[in-house]
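Reopening: Lrp/AsnC family transcriptional regulator still failing for me.
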Amino acid sequence: MDELDLALVNALQHDPRASWARLARPLGVDAATLSRRWARLGASGEAWVTCYPGPSQLDFGAFALVEVGCLPGANQRIAAAIAADPCTGSVEHTTGGRDLLLTVSATSVAAVSGYVLDRLGALDGITFTRTHLSHRLHREASRWRLDSLSHDQRRDLERGAGSGTGQEPGPLRDDEVAVLLALAPDGRRSHAALAAELGMPETRVRRALTGMLSSGRAVLRCEAAHWLAGWRVTGMLWLQVPPPRLRAVADRIATMREARMVCSVVGRANLMVNVWVHGMGELAAYQARLVSLYPEIQIVDQSVTLKWIKRVGRLLDEQGRGVGCVPLDPRKTSPADLTGQNS
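Support: Ran it again with your exact input. Result attached.
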């Protein structure tokens, strides 16, 4: 990916559905060139825009990170089966005391239990699971940005981006879920294309999408093949923070450049931080900086991602390119929905 590719991805992180004409001025390139660039990036799987339930839905369901241990030789088969499941948002093959790390969004804590017991329990070769139930997302990965734009370019893009309306989030309605799932493979699809696929009036599609995004019930996110974009090391830190300091420390860590996702969880390690950096040396330096800034925290565990198999519904190859899509479906996260699925 060259500098213009990265700048285009960075711009779409600020405003994923911005028109090419809107992006032409801050990027200094004509709209036709941007359109061709994006078409190439999408065709190669190097970049994409997706849509998924927003962090506000945590108030109406449950979010968990699940560690999975596998028998030797079973990792790839198990990872592929889990990645094909719409209940699973992301799947990583990692170092450390687990083979796979999953993110799971469910309709309830009971549905998380059903996922672990019924879905994962049906897969041969799993030796253990360890579930970390989150009670607060301090930073969600759609807020993370590449560093390919100047300050003036970022300011220009932020001026044009939409903002929330302040309306109550509420749970997703069925028509909103339908629009969300249709947008998951390509978050830049037109209202007309969505309306034709879903058999809805275009005005209804537009209203559903606007309402979801402005209230935080759904999130649009521009992603890139992280390895090709230069972010070659990703990993997870399990931190122990004194409970009275948890929220303050977590909120501050959430502002750090390297922190892509930050969530409070229940357990001895009560804060999990997903970190993206350019190299292993930066990861070590980041950990040293964390402990220096917040001496009260303890790094309980850590892992480096050897391979992303799935990230927020997108199936990935070894370089992080998108090669398929299995969207996270909030309607299929109850134990009853899991029964009878292929394993």
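Residues 338-343 have pLDDT under 50 and may be disordered. If you still see a failure, please send the error message rather than a screenshot.
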